[in-house]
Amino acid sequence: MSKTKNKRKIKKQVVFNLISILVISIFATFYLGRFIYYYKDNQKEVIYSDILAEQIVERVGKYEIEEYLIEKNNIYRFVGEPKYNYVKFNGYTWRIIKINEDKSITMIMDDSIIALDYGNVSEYKDSQINKWLNKQDNVQYSGIFNNIIAENLDLLTTTKTCNDKFNKIESIECYEVSSEYQISLLSMNDYAEAGGANSYLNNGTYFWTTNLNKDNQFWYISDEGSTGVAEHDEEYGVRPVITLKPGVKVIRGSGTNDDPYIIEEKEINTLKDAYIGQYIILNDSLWRIVEHNGNATKVVSEEYMKDADGNDYLMTYSTINHNVDLNDETTLLYYLNNTYYKNFKEKNLLVKGSFYDGGYVASGNYDYTSTYNSKFNAYVGLLSIAEPFVYDLGNVFTSIVNVENELTVYVINEEELLFEDSITNQHYVRPSVYVKNTAVITEGEGTYLSPYKLGSENDGEA
């Protein structure tokens, strides 16, 4: 090869190398510039709207949740398994279902608060469930849940309830809508739109919906997320659905389970300030707040009562009949108000209060309000079947009896369903007591993992 050809080849190689270096430099400069731009952009403090409905939509791009928040006909609906639709409200965890056209927000309690039967009715609005949820004119003992969230009702608007009746899932629609009450249940339409069994609405439990079929049977969701219908005397979970007013503001939070949206908060110094449903430590065990009553707060143990050796204690209700007799040494209630009470570590915090033992006729009545017809005062008692959290643990006694059979009492069975059983059969016990409202909260967050701890108190009566 001649020297001329070698020089040409070397010259071409140099030109090629220079061009390559130039191209690489251009690309490097371009992408480095983009990297610096987006890095700086991401470091900027993002200021979102303080209106919850607006902030959720604004956060879509930030958290890349487009696939979980779908807009259709001006309604933003969470579908699938979103991580950013958690709200803490009135002490409970809720999941946002949708942002409605008017920017109100419909959400559902993450867990059931109680289990009830529908009652012998042909419409949801006439059901025992609706009566338990919403206060109704001239209906005594209605609105149990309404009372639980009473201090925050001003944040709510009415909730649209779907009343369509259908026999086939494929024909689910929401044409018949009522907006009479603030609190409702999940509709089959909302369940299907969210993705059904493959969505966050499937929480692994049985719970009711608002819909009936054309034979007046009631649609429910199973523990596997499938749908089915049941008769009016079946008992399934109740997961309240509420709707926040348009314009409700978010105080803090990003909407995750660990950092839920906070839309209301208050200073909690004494037991009276705590939310119903929150947890406390009492007698070296975990308890849950059931209701505030006068100067005392009713709580129930979240653990089975234990014997002297620390083992879960199986007991009988009575050996004679189910009638309340606090002086009968053979009864469970005598044991609770004597042996158990005397060994209670914080007796100075306890006061006497009312426990309900009204009769419940499961063979045709289906009316939870009858359980309030009779009560007794004691230091220690049991929950009735209409009180919140009575279904938290299975294989336990309730305070409710069957007026048609004095040898039976209602229990929550191992499947955590209501069951009528003999007074001589053994079950575990979840004691319930009244604690002075003036008990000071010294530490804790009121959660299952961080319950409140109580300190000093002043005198009080239930």
Give an overview in words.
- The structure is a single chain.
- With 462 residues, the chain is of the alpha+beta class.
- It folds into two domains: 52-261, no CATH class; 271-454, no CATH class.
- Helices cover 18% and strands 26% of the residues.
- Strands 1, 2, 3, 4, 5, 7, 10, 15 and 16 form a nine-stranded mixed β-sheet that branches. Strands 17, 18, 19, 20, 23, 27, 28 and 29 form an eight-stranded mixed β-sheet that branches.
- Strand 18 (285-293) and strand 19 (296-301) form a beta hairpin.
- The termini are far apart.
Write the layout of secondary structure elements.
Layout (H helix, E strand, L loop, with lengths): L2 H41 L8 H12 L5 E4 L2 E4 L7 E4 L2 E8 L5 E5 L4 E4 L10 H6 L10 H5 L7 E2 L3 E2 L14 E2 L4 E2 L3 H7 L12 E6 L5 E4 L5 E4 L4 E4 L2 E4 L16 E2 L16 E4 L2 E9 L2 E6 L30 H11 L7 E2 L1 E4 L18 E4 L1 E2 L14 E6 L6 E5 L5 E5 L9 E5 L4 E3 L8 E3 L8
